[in-house]
Amino acid sequence: MNLTEETAGIDVGEVVGLRGRAAVIIACAVWVIFLFLGTASGGVELPFVYLLGFALLGLGWFLLLWSPEDPMRLADALVAAVGGALASGLAVLACDLDYRAAILALGAAPALTFGLLPVRGRLGVAWLGAFLAVGLVVGAEWFREAELGSVAQLLVPGTIGVLAMSSLFAMLARPRAKQIAALRRLGERDRETEAVRQVRDARVYRLQAQVRPLLEYIASGQRLTDEQVAVCLLVEAGLRDRIRAPGLDMNELADAAWDARSRGVRVTLLDDREVQLVADESDELAKVRDAAVGVLVGARAGAEVTVRLLPERRDRFATIGIAEDGQARRIDFATVPSVSEPAADHGNRP
Q: Model confidence over 106-120: pLDDT tens digits?
């Protein structure tokens, strides 16, 4: 797969940190600061209208941080842009035009809305929202019978300037952000492939260390001793485990099964899952492994131990059955991810 195909589905908002908890905290803090500065500076003649403007502003910021997909959903982008434009117009309607601090606190804040829209992939919507904001500010001036341009010259240059810089940044940074994220994905896949290869090589080396000496001895034509026959049977059982229970092919469990079989314990490992799990990545599988090792270490000659990973979509993830001294018990493990601890033993159950 080439890099262009790999960039499909990458959310630039997540790459640059707009979808994270830190961005939410910063946005809330900035919103509260603007609200405090606006209300504390005086000059707010219509508090309800002023607070309505801040509510629309906050809604737009929420959508910018929450809206999924890349580019962000068009409906969310339009709501954010229109909300920012309305906030600018409401700032002019709600404030005494001589109190510029109150007007700036609400009227200039939408510049952040329009500035973030290009980063979220909605450049056209951002410019439409900015032009709408200019129109609403001029319209509010006309409604207030103020000198046309007296407030617009206070709000418009900053809004357009921020949007122009943000647009340039988005056009340059968005493709690079996607490429960086795609390269990171490819690197992670390469590391996963290398990890799988190392696990496979370790298993091959372990198998070779067990089987090769026996094969060489058999090839020499010498007669096998009883001890060597017993080792051959243990090796065969281990090979069967790898075939029938690939999800349980773990060194600790394999060693415990080997030792238990050498003591006369009958051990059966089964994996009925369609998708193989990796012990290092599955806490539930690690719990099954630890419990199985503990059971095998304590099992006495003549006991039967069956460790089974159950098929998906069952209410149980795995079971360990123990038959010993005429008694049977079972350890159940709940299906992931509901409960990760094994259930209590069920006495006299097969």
A: 888 898 899 888 888
